[in-house]
Specification:
Elements lengths: L13 E10 L5 E5 L5 H16 L14 E6 H8 L10 E6 L2 E6 L2 H14 L7 E9 L5 E7 L6 H13 L4 E5 L10 H15 L23 H5 L21 H13 L3 E8 L4 H4 L22 H18 L3 E5 L17 H17 L4 E5 L5 E3 L5 E3 L3 E4 L6 E4 L14 E4 L19 E3 L10 H5 L4 E7 L6 H6 L2 H13 L6 H20 L4 H4 L5 E3 L6 E2 L13 E2 L8 E2 L1 E2 L5 E7 L5 E9 L3 E8 L19 E9 L4 E7 L31 E4 L5 E8 L7 E8 L9 E9 L1
Parallel strand pairs: 2-3, 3-5, 7-8, 7-18, 8-9, 9-10, 10-11, 11-16, 16-17, 17-18
Antiparallel strand pairs: 1-6, 4-5, 4-6, 12-13, 14-15, 19-32, 20-24, 21-22, 23-24, 24-32, 25-31, 26-30, 26-32, 27-28, 27-31, 29-30
Helix pairs in contact: 1-3, 4-14, 13-14
Length: 737
């Protein structure tokens, strides 16, 4: 169904291509039918969307003459002309393209918008001067299809708008926006000031100089500095700091209202997350009188027995409601480890404390007509196949150096004590692959939280439960192109979109092949760049590497089978390999500790950009999520140096996990020892190149800032993060005129 020439993603429920073609040599006339109040605004929006998708005007502002028309309207108004059964499902649409024109009907405003997104995919640049004949009936399998992100930093708002477009392209309709201290609180400005101060302290934190010795653990390991170290520095467990939220600062209420407005334009509903009980640094640091643990220098859990807690927390919630006007509000409550410590809570049952807190906040929201959403980990009692217990179970440990005791009471029974209209986000799905712990057994509706589609097992069985409303993919890093890409998150939205819209899980190999081909253009859109590697027309000129080449390492000799000419997954290239008669890679520029540099490689002419095809067999190269690496920058595996004819030089890096990755295996390939990448290397800025069935190379693009000056040569050397063992392989270089 997923046609390579005219891709439609996520896959429609029903789609049939015909032999007809619609010429786009002249703009289509516009006809609007129906009297729905949403139709005029959506009509204007769809015209702009389609023109941008095609890269040229395709819709005329005036009604048509005798030529083909784009006829848009409500489902009822166009039912007789569509030639397909009416779609009655919410967010549904019908689309018909023939030689006579286009018919696009929406069941509602959102459905109309999603039909326009499908049509925009058929109109993408390079699709040609005509549209294929097609008939579509479509609707989503799940009503909640979302992303979880932090409040963006002001400097990243332009990226954030593009990310919203990225979500809309894939028909996502939900944004869980974690607020914390990242919103201007006019009634509580002390929260904002404390948040800024805490984020600065967390980034500068050093375990060795931490003066708060009365509660320090003796079991600290790497890292010893930064926010992650601060969260791990006590003898009792703490939740993570989330200091990336707002860039360690906050947005004004006017800026936040614009976020809400931009989401509405794209039919994306915002659910603000105002963390309660846990992850409350933003509340407890400016107001230590509500903290549950008095010996915590950076308290993160509030006391659920203190009336002052709710005087503050519910007032903060009300101010967030005033800004975003949500239908649902997320109250957090995940990773709560501290219960029953302060004098008011000591001796009380953990289930009771948790249930009373949830119910109190729920009732406050219900009184304003707002539904409560919360994380579900403290409501779980899961025993994995390996015997590990997860969720709100009883835990106890003693710090071996200080002898101090930590005790966490069980809380899972609260699942049967809270209001039944609480919506639960279950992010412990990996520990429950058979779905035995669905919250439906407690009478609660749920979504899957922190969805990682390529790791989800038994989707069709588990997601078909009547209480499952959908899922969201969480980011948990700063809102930026680098952070989202480096952690592999941007790529997860591609399979996630189909999972939640179509409702079916594709085989891993098939979905990865589609990702390799179709995600690079999406990456360019979300980063605001236009790479030749993604959409370039015409061939690039291969550069001869023979003078700098050496035989492949023994681990690769005779195994990298791609033929003498390779193309990227997006169809750009070619790259010319130094291959043997059987098409196996025989020689390349090979760097390792015994040969850390190579070159010069003669370029000998003008080039608007250079295309580098490389990969590595090194393991243990620096690759961690951004929230863990404030004390380290990205892992620079290679450094390239370009020399122009006038002697001027420029250097640029190849970053592991961004431009270059492991060669072994079909894309995406495992990164040994990587954290948070879920054992997948996406190399998000590289375009993958299959070198046979068992090896992958990665294409990186360098844009020449001086395209009118001839480039004489290219050199390369190992970067500071290269490992001691293994090799880096530069297999080919091509120059774009």
């Amino acid at each position: 169904m997923h046609d390579e020439t005219f891709p439609v993603w996520p896959r429609p429920q029903e789609i049939t291509f015909t032999d007809e073609r619609l010429s786009l040599a002249q703009p289509l006339g516009l006809v609007v039918r129906g009297d729905a109040d949403w139709l005029p605004g959506e009509a204007d929006r769809v015209v702009g969307l389609l023109d941008r998708a095609a890269g040229r005007p395709v819709v005329a502002a005036n009604p048509p003459g005798a030529g083909p028309a784009l006829t848009i309207g409500t489902m009822d108004a166009l039912a007789a002309e569509l030639g397909v059964p009416v779609v009655e499902r919410a967010e549904g649409y019908a689309l018909a393209v023939s030689a006579d024109g286009v018919l696009l009907a929406g069941k509602d405003a959102a459905g109309f918008f999603y039909g326009a997104q499908t049509l925009a995919q058929l109109l993408r640049p390079g699709a040609g001067p005509e549209l294929p004949g097609v008939r579509v009936r479509d609707w989503p399998a799940f009503p909640m299809r979302g992303a979880h992100v932090y409040m963006p930093a002001r400097a990243e708002l332009d990226f954030f708008w593009r990310f919203l477009d990225f979500l809309a392209d894939y028909k996502y309709n939900l944004l869980v926006l974690e607020i914390g201290g990242g919103l201007e609180y006019k009634r509580h400005p002390e929260i904002n000031e404390a948040w800024r101060r805490f984020c600065k302290e967390a980034r500068e934190y050093d375990f060795h100089t931490d003066p708060h010795t009365e509660s320090k653990t003796t079991e600290m390991g790497e890292p010893f500095t930064g926010p992650t170290a601060l969260a791990r520095s006590r003898y009792f467990p703490k939740n993570s700091t989330h200091t990336e939220l707002g860039g360690g600062d906050w947005l004004t209420q006017a800026e936040a209202r614009r976020i809400a407005a931009e989401c509405r334009k794209r039919h994306i509903e915002i659910i603000p997350e105002v963390q309660g009980l846990s992850h409350c640094y933003y509340l407890c640091i400016p107001h230590p009188e509500i903290a549950e643990r008095p010996d915590d220098p950076w308290p993160n859990n509030y006391c659920p027995s203190n009336p002052k807690t709710y005087g503050l927390y519910l007032d903060v919630i009300d101010e967030v409601i005033e800004v975003f006007e949500p239908r649902t509000l997320h109250i957090g409550h995940d990773e709560a480890y501290t219960f029953g410590v302060c004098p008011q809570c000591r001796g009380r049952d953990g289930h009771e404390l948790l249930a009373e807190d949830i119910t109190r906040v729920h009732d406050h929201l219900a009184g304003r007509g707002i539904r409560t959403l919360m994380w579900g980990d403290k409501l779980h009692n899961i025993t994995t196949a390996a015997g590990r217990r997860l969720g709100g179970v009883e835990r106890e440990r003693v710090d071996p150096g200080t002898g101090k005791r930590f005790y966490q009471p069980a809380t899972y029974k609260a699942a049967d004590m809270i209001p039944k209209d609480v919506l639960v986000a279950d992010w412990y799905w990996k520990g429950d692959p058979e779905g035995r712990h669905n919250f439906g057994r407690h009478g609660l509706e749920q979504i899957f939280g922190n969805l990682w589609p390529l790791k989800f097992q038994n989707w069709e069985t588990r997601a078909s439960a009547p209480n499952v409303l959908g899922a969201e993919t969480s980011t948990w890093v700063e809102v930026s192109a680098y952070a989202f890409g480096h952690t592999g998150i941007l790529h997860q939205f591609f399979p996630g979109a189909d999972l939640l819209w179509r409702g079916l899980q594709m085989p891993r190999a098939q979905i990865c092949a589609l990702m390799a081909r179709h995600v690079p253009p999406a990456i360019d859109k979300v980063t605001g760049e236009q790479r030749w590697l993604v959409s370039g027309q015409g061939d690039a000129a291969p550069i001869d590497l023979a003078a700098a080449a050496a035989p492949l390492p023994e681990s690769l000799a005779g195994k990298v089978d791609g033929g003498a000419r390779l193309m990227t997954a997006t169809g750009t290239g070619p790259f010319r390999l130094l291959a043997d008669a059987q098409g196996r890679l025989e020689r390349a520029v090979v760097l390792g500790r015994e040969r850390p540099a190579a070159g010069p490689i003669a370029i000998g002419g003008k080039a608007s950009r250079l295309l580098l095809l490389h990969g590595t067999t090194m393991e243990g190269v620096w690759y961690v999520p951004t929230y863990s690496s404030y004390h380290r920058g990205p892992g620079v595996l290679l450094e390239y140096r370009v020399t122009w004819v006038d002697g001027e030089q420029a250097r640029f890096p190849a970053i592991f996990g961004e431009h270059i990755g492991p060669m072994q295996g079909a894309w995406p390939t495992p990164i040994a020892g990587a954290r948070w990448s879920h054992d997948l290397a996406f190399c998000y800025r590289a375009v993958p190149v299959a070198a046979g069935a068992e090896h992958t190379l990665f294409a990186q693009e360098w844009v020449n800032p001086r395209p009118d000056v001839p480039v004489t040569e290219l050199s390369l050397e190992l970067g500071p993060d290269a490992a001691e063992q293994g090799a880096v392989i530069l297999a080919a270089v091509s120059a774009v005129p």
